[in-house]
Specification:
The protein has 370 residues and is α/β, with parallel strands linked by helices. It folds into two domains: 11-230, TIM Barrel, CATH 3.20.20.10; 243-341, Lyase, Ornithine Decarboxylase, Chain A, domain 1 (Beta Barrel), CATH 2.40.37. Helices cover 30% and strands 22% of the residues. The protein contains twelve helices and 18 strands. Strands 1, 10, 11, 12, 13, 14, 15, 16, 17 and 18 form a ten-stranded mixed sheet that branches. An eight-stranded parallel sheet has the order 8-7-6-5-4-3-2-9.
């Protein structure tokens, strides 16, 4: 880590995005997804900014729950994998864990009976997704096992859409809804007060009438759309990116024509060229795949990467910024002047999605609220 580089988080943008989705969610509960270090933005910082504006906070595992409990006592949903040996601690920390097999049910019942520890839980239904969850065809057998412990009551049942953000064909989404509802009817018959939810950011956008009692807003919270098509159809939300990734020029110098730049000799200057060294690299989450194709902003102008992205640094061609000097600001992600480097632009160059671009930003970089 170096203090030339940091992540700026816009309070105004985050709160605007929360308000935009709350208006879409109508009366449903609002769960902010802050797993994966709040999609790379910084869990503690984002949770502090959210304050009491949301009803629940969703994380993935016990490590994230511990961090969450350092800054918030709000309702916590732990919807990833929690080993049986960690169930007691999750309960003592006041979390709702996800259950999709019978062994966690037995452990939750044992903790209640033997240790006096109450562990809240949600039931995950695998409604035509093929990941975690109870298959709808196994719902009866699962509920029979759960019925052996009449003191246990699930808080909710939920599912995930498989393919909703990148398609106009909603046949599979509708089939998922039918599968989930069939399982839910059986759950509700035994537990009349159980909640239900299926919509994350893309589900709320594409299937607003199916949100039920809660929405789980992740990528949209951070001002990023799940897909280009949803960005077009929901432009009225005017989502604002929360993250701005800033570094500064560590060195500026002129190389002669024919001079190599970086490992692997993948780039040679064709003329005398002023280059700048940016002290960020793939260890900071700046992908090596941006070698020779990425761009950054200096003085509001685009400067191309030249040579390979190394572990801790990369080089840029400063030909368009002849007055650049060492320690001038460099923007890797976000706006400077009238231009902006977007997560979507970066993800297109890498053949991935905007989620990955932000989620991989190193947690070691300082986060600063602006």
């Amino acid at each position: 880590m170096n203090h030339l580089s940091l992540i700026e988080l816009s309070r105004e943008a985050l709160l605007h995005n929360v308000a935009a989705f709350q208006s879409e969610a109508e009366d449903g509960l609002f769960a902010a997804v802050v797993k994966a270090n709040a999609y790379g933005h910084g869990l503690e910082e984002i949770v502090a900014l959210l304050g009491d504006r949301v009803d629940a906070l969703q994380v993935d595992d016990l490590d994230e729950l511990r961090r969450l409990r350092g800054v918030s006592d709000r309702r916590a949903l732990v919807y990833g994998y929690v080993p049986l040996r960690e169930t007691e601690e999750a309960g003592r920390l006041g979390a709702e864990v996800t259950v999709y097999d019978v062994d966690p049910i037995r452990e939750i019942a044992r903790l209640w009976h033997d240790e006096g520890v109450k562990v809240d839980f949600s039931l995950k239904i695998d409604a035509l997704l093929g990941r975690q969850g109870v298959l709808p065809s196994d719902a009866d057998a699962f509920l029979e096992e759960l019925a052996k412990y009449p003191h246990l009551q699930p808080t909710s049942a939920y599912a995930h859409y498989a393919n909703i953000e990148d398609t106009t064909d909603l046949n599979h989404a509708e089939a998922q809804e039918e599968a989930f509802e069939a399982a839910f009817r059986k759950i509700e018959a035994r537990y009349p007060h159980v909640g239900r939810h299926i919509a994350a950011t893309s589900g709320l956008m594409a299937r607003p009438g199916v949100q039920k009692t809660m929405v789980r807003v992740g990528i949209g919270l951070y001002g990023l759309y799940p897909s280009a098509s949803l960005a077009r159809s929901h432009a009225h939300l005017e989502l604002r990116p929360v993250m701005r990734w800033v570094s500064h020029l560590a060195q500026v110098k002129t190389l002669p024509a024919g001079h190599p730049v970086g490992y692997g000799l993948t780039y040679r200057t064709t003329r005398p060229t002023t280059i700048g060294i940016v002290p960020q690299g793939y260890s900071d989450g700046y992908d090596r795949g941006l070698s020779n194709v990425g761009e950054v902003l200096v003085h509001g102008r685009r400067c191309p990467l030249v040579g390979r992205v190394a572990m801790n640094m990369f080089a840029i061609d400063l030909s368009s910024v002849p007055d650049a000097r060492a320690e001038d600001e460099v923007v890797l992600l976000g706006d400077q002047g009238e231009d902006r480097i977007t997560a979507e632009e970066i993800s297109a160059k890498l053949g991935t999605i905007n989620y990955e671009v932000v989620a991989r930003v190193s947690p070691l970089l300082p986060r600063v609220i602006v």
